[in-house]
Amino acid sequence: xxxxxxxxxxxxGQSSAQTLTDTVALRGxxxxxxTAHLRDKHIAGATVSIIKDGKVLLAQGYxxxxxxxxVPVRAEVDLFRIGSITKMFTWVSVMQLVAxxxxxxxxxxxxxxxxxxxEPTFPEPITLKNLMTxxxxxxxxxxxxxxxxxxxxxxLGEILAxxxxxxxxxxxxxxxxxxxxxxxxxxIIEQVTGMSFNDYVEQNVLVPLGMKNTTxxxxxxxxxxxxxxxxxxxxxxxxxxxxFEFVPLYPAGSASTTATDMVLFMRALLENGSLNGAKxxxxxxxxxMKTPAHRHDPAxxxxxxxxxxxxxxxxxxxxxxxxxxxxxxxxxLFPQHNVGFFVSFNTDKGGGVYLDVLDExxxxxxxxxxxxxxxxVTREYLxxxxxxxxxNRQNHSDFTTVAGLLGDFSVTVTDSTGLKVQSGERVRxxxxxxxxxxxxxxxxxxxxxxxxxxxxxxxxxxxxxIFTLDKVSGLxxxxxxxxxxxxxxxxxxxxxxxxxxxxxxxxGYQSQRFTKPMPFNARLVAWLNFFVLLIFYLGVASNAxxxxxVYGVSSALKVFLYFPFLNILLTAGMLYWLIRVIPVxxxxxxxxxxYTLLCLVAIAALWxxxxxxxxxx
Length: 617
Fold this sequence. Notes:
Structural class: alpha+beta
Shape: globular
Number of helices: 18
CATH topology of the largest domain: Beta-lactamase
Distance between the termini: 79 Å
Radius of gyration: 29 Å
Number of domains: 3
Strand order of the largest sheet: 16-17-18-19-20-21-22-23
Helix content: 25-40%
Low-confidence stretches: 1-18
CATH superfamily of the largest domain: DD-peptidase/beta-lactamase superfamily
Strand content: 15-25%
Largest sheet: 8 strands, antiparallel, barrel
């Protein structure tokens, strides 16, 4: 009995990752997970690779790379777009030049820029370290993030010089994911080396590692085209094949690769920067790259030097996710266990699914530690956290500012034990484990809050160190803006339909009353104002879908964005008539009140359009 207890103790003490070497069980597990997700989430195909101690445990394709022709995915042959995982090639390249003394992570980036300079909006300069941790303080820009064809591809310097996002917060304070920041880092590499970024990455990363099936080039080189997986958009009963996605800021998201090529990249990052005698980083530089570089709160994951920290439950995980419209991927490294995990999906429905797969993989092979016990608090204490929170990754200078209103997180008090955090259909139930720190009810996943001057100001999601959630209210409230828009639409429709109806019904009718309605010209100005406003709303709504905007602003949308200038003139006309008729006693009081309401709503609508940068293209 003692021997049995000792054996069980030793088995329990073994690393759970050791069971990963049972490749038969691993394949069976992943086959079940992937097949279920492809079926249930309506995904055409996926590719997976898993390594441990430099050995490939699994390299497998699932589903189809060409759904119409029923061509199965081949892990060693078929290329998938990996989106922002591309950034890891950029950060490795930066660190190579840091090791050579050609770049300084703490130097002002303007030191390296020859053709343009970053505006000195704040006293603190932006550094390469800020770019690597997504803390340069840029707003987010997604107009033109993708291109429909190769005509959208321009030199990095030209894109950055003409479309550099505004600086909206001091650098090094709060992270806000920035594709332009990565593009800026790649352009600095070009300035320092005199090479194009594509040439540099090929010569200093891809070729040394033997990654013959990986490219950042667009369009794809001829020998890659036939092996590129199709990308799909799913609608009930149909996989619609989509065209190749061009990424103008290509260092941030253009790479196409295979699961087996990702094995080579993951091995190098896990094996001290070397692979088969080739070295892309010395061990000291790679070790530095993996160290924390910025953290919002001691309780949440830090941002490493380029790596996203995906750790949970006491298990260290670093890597990066990547999304285009049609492809969704994640690369996760477990440095303490020398394990690498990569998965990529080729359908729009795969967004977020890669994290579900990673969670299932970790639950099986790297189970969470015992969660911290809950803290006893009162409903009154929890009430301070309730409210709306908005991701700080948003635009501040063009009409896409409105997108920031659409994804608020709602935090509500459920009872005296915890909070409910909801964003869309995603719901988290969190319980307090410290004064400002919560964890999910059935896991170790952490949510933390920031408190300043006695009030809660921000929320941090533990394993997403690339942005913050700012508490919003007042003029920033999505509810306020929704109320203004609905009021303008309802009153506009009522006015457009009611006034003509009344006018027609009164033809030939002579009023005997001593009071009169508003003058015809006053009503005409108001009628035209709300007619133009409703056409504007309809035009913007029909031309500003997300899939279209990322390719640029259409000519039709540009025209509609100038409509508010007419509203400014017509609103001024309404105010002119309001001032004239208010003192006149024989105009009906109800008519004057209604006209006053129309004026107030018209002014509110104009303020809203100004606030959301929707006046002028």
